[in-house]
Amino acid sequence: MTSQHIFKVADYVHVVNCQMHKHHRVPMYLKGKTGQITAILGAYANPEKLSFFDTKSGDISVYRVCFSHAHLWGGEGVDEVFADLMETWIEPVKETQ
């Protein structure tokens, strides 16, 4: 994967909601949720591949994504949850018509 970042700060992204039976680095409570990128953390070796001794998969961009507490669990809370997510686990928010 390239070191160029697909997303930028302030983009809204959707966390991919797929079930994995292998090692993965996304909390279940974030899958299928929408958040906003607050920082680009750089590009790093893919820990999901490294856990299976694959050192040739290349670097993946990592983003800090902010999720509202209310969006994750409902209610009136104003707190936020931040997660550092690999580019492979997020996708652009599709606009609804």
From TrEMBL:
Annotated InterPro entries: CN_hydtase_beta_dom_C (IPR024690), Elect_transpt_acc-like_dom_sf (IPR008990)
Gene3D superfamilies, per database record: 2.30.30.50
Domain (Nitrile hydratase beta subunit) ranges: 4-92
UniProt name for this protein: Putative ScnA-like protein
Originating organism: Puniceispirillum marinum (strain IMCC1322)
